[in-house]
C-alpha cells in the first residue's frame, strides 16, 4: 500500500446568470471586441448583479452543487477553506458564514488570501491537513466577486475580470492518487504592479480615497504580464522535470485564467498540446480564486482516474506556483 495522499473526490461550481459581453463593454468604455479577444482571449464574463449579495452567495452555491452531486454529508466536513480576494466583509471570515449556511456544523473554517494564487495555495493547505492524518474531509472553495473592486470606467482592468465560484472536496486516498508535488513562490516587490491601494491598514478608507478611486484594482498590465509569463512557465516546467514527467505524461494543464497569451506561453514551454490545456477564459474572464476550480467543474467529465494534472497560477503579491496532482475518479 502506498502512503496516504490527499485527493479531490468531488467538484462543484457556480457562475452568476448575468453575462457582460465584449459588445456591451464597447458601450461602456473606449474598447472593442477585437482588441479584447486578441489581447486576452476573453469574449464575455459573468457578473453578480443581485443586490446585497457578496462572495459568500456564490461560494455557498458552488458548495451546495458539490454536496448535491457527491452526496457528502455536510456535517462530516472537518474544515471549510474559502480562497478569496474579495471577502464579504474585511473582518469576520467569509468561510465561517459559508460553513454555517451549507450545514457544515462540525467544521472550523477560515479565509485564505493570495490574490489569483489563492486557490492554488489553498490546495496546498487542504492537502497538508489530510496528509498529516489530522482531518478527513476538507472543502476548498475558490470564490470572488471581482465586480465589487473593479472600476467600470477603467478599460485596462474592467475587460479582464469576472465573478464566479468553484469548490472541491479533498479526502484521503490510499492508492497514491491526489497531490504529488508542489512548488510555491512569492515576491513582495510585485505589489507595486497589482494592488488596491486603500482600505487596508496603510491607507484606511476616507472621503479622499473614495474620490481618488483608490478602492479599485490598479494594475500595471505590461509588467504583470511579463512576470506572469516567465514565472508560470518556469514553475510548470520545473514541476514536470523534477517528477520525471514528459509532455506525453501530462494529461492536463490546469492554468489560472488571466490571459490566453500567458496560458499559451506556459503550455508551449511545457511542450503540451493545446487539446490538453483546460481553458474557459473566453466565457468567464479572470475570476481570480475561482479560475482553477471552475476549470475542473467544466472539464470534470473528461477526466479519468490516474490522469496527471499540472496546476499553475500567478497573482498579485506577487504569488505563484505549480502543483502536480493525480486525478482520483472517473465521472
Ligand atoms: C492588461 C493586458 C491585457 C493589456 O495588454 P497589452 O498588450 O499589455 O496592452 P498595453 O497595456 O501595452 O496597451 C496597449 C495599448 O492598448 C490600449 N488599451 C488598453 N486597454 C485597452 C482596451 N481595453 N481596449 C482598447 N485599447 C486598450 C492602451 O492604452 C495602449 O495604448 P497606447 O499604445 O496608445 O498607449 C495585458 O497586459 C495583460 O493581460 N496583463 C496581465 C494581466 C493579468 O494577468 N492580471 C492578473 C494577474 S493574475
Automatic annotation (TrEMBL):
Catalytic activity line of the entry: malonyl-[ACP] + acetyl-CoA + H(+) = 3-oxobutanoyl-[ACP] + CO2 + CoA
Broad class of enzyme this protein falls into: transferase
Any single biological process term in GO: secondary metabolite biosynthetic process
Keywords (A to Z) from UniProt: Acyltransferase, Cytoplasm, Fatty acid biosynthesis, Fatty acid metabolism, Lipid biosynthesis, Lipid metabolism, Multifunctional enzyme, Transferase
Active site, renumbered: 116, 256, 286
Domain Beta-ketoacyl-[acyl-carrier-protein] synthase III C-terminal: 240-327
InterPro entries hit by this protein: ACP_syn_III_C, ACP_syn_III_N, FabH, Thiolase-like
Pathway: Lipid metabolism; fatty acid biosynthesis
A Gene Ontology molecular function term of the record: beta-ketoacyl-acyl-carrier-protein synthase III activity
Single GO cellular component term: cytoplasm
PANTHER family in the cross-refs: 3-OXOACYL-[ACYL-CARRIER-PROTEIN] SYNTHASE 3, BETA-KETOACYL-[ACYL-CARRIER-PROTEIN] SYNTHASE III
Assembly and interaction partners: Homodimer.
Protein name: Beta-ketoacyl-[acyl-carrier-protein] synthase III
Source organism of this protein record: Flagellimonas pacifica
Gene name, Swiss-Prot/TrEMBL: fabH
Amino acid at each position: 500500500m502506498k502512503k496516504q495522499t490527499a485527493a479531490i473526490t468531488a467538484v462543484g461550481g457556480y457562475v452568476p446568470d448575468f453575462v457582460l459581453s465584449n459588445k456591451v463593454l464597447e458601450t461602456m468604455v473606449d474598447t472593442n471586441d477585437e482588441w479584447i479577444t486578441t489581447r486576452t482571449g476573453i469574449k464575455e464574463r459573468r457578473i453578480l448583479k443581485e443586490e446585497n449579495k457578496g462572495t459568500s452567495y456564490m461560494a455557498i452555491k458552488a458548495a451546495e452543487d458539490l454536496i448535491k452531486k457527491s452526496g457528502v454529508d455536510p456535517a462530516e466536513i472537518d474544515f471549510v477553506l474559502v480562497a478569496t480576494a474579495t471577502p464579504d466583509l474585511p473582518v469576520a471570515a467569509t468561510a465561517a458564514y459559508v460553513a454555517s449556511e451549507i450545514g457544515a456544523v462540525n467544521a472550523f473554517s477560515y479565509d485564505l488570501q493570495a490574490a489569483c494564487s489563492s486557490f492554488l495555495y489553498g490546495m496546498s493547505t487542504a492537502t497538508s491537513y489530510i496528509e498529516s492524518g489530522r482531518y478527513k474531509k476538507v472543502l476548498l472553495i475558490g470564490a470572488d466577486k471581482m465586480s465589487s473592486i473593479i472600476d467600470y470606467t477603467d478599460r485596462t482592468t474592467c475587460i479582464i475580470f469576472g465573478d464566479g465560484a468553484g469548490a472541491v472536496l479533498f479526502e484521503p486516498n490510499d492508492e497514491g492518487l491526489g497531490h504529488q508535488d508542489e512548488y510555491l513562490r512569492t515576491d513582495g516587490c510585485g505589489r507595486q504592479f497589482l494592488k488596491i491601494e486603500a482600505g487596508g491598514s496603510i491607507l484606511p478608507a476616507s472621503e479622499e480615497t473614495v474620490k481618488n478611486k483608490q478602492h479599485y484594482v490598479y494594475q500595471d498590465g505590461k509588467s504583470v504580464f511579463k512576470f506572469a509569463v516567465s514565472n508560470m512557465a518556469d514553475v510548470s516546467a520545473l514541476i514536470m522535470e523534477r517528477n520525471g514527467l514528459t509532455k506525453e505524461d501530462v494529461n492536463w494543464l490546469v492554468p489560472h485564467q488571466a490571459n490566453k497569451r500567458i496560458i499559451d506561453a506556459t503550455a508551449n514551454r511545457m511542450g503540451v498540446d493545446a487539446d490538453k490545456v483546460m481553458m474557459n477564459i473566453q466565457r468567464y474572464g479572470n475570476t481570480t480564486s475561482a479560475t482553477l476550480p471552475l476549470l475542473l467543474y467544466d472539464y470534470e467529465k473528461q477526466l479519468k482516474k490516474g490522469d496527471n494534472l499540472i496546476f499553475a497560477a500567478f497573482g498579485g503579491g506577487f504569488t505563484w506556483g505549480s502543483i502536480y496532482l493525480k486525478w482520483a475518479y472517473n465521472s
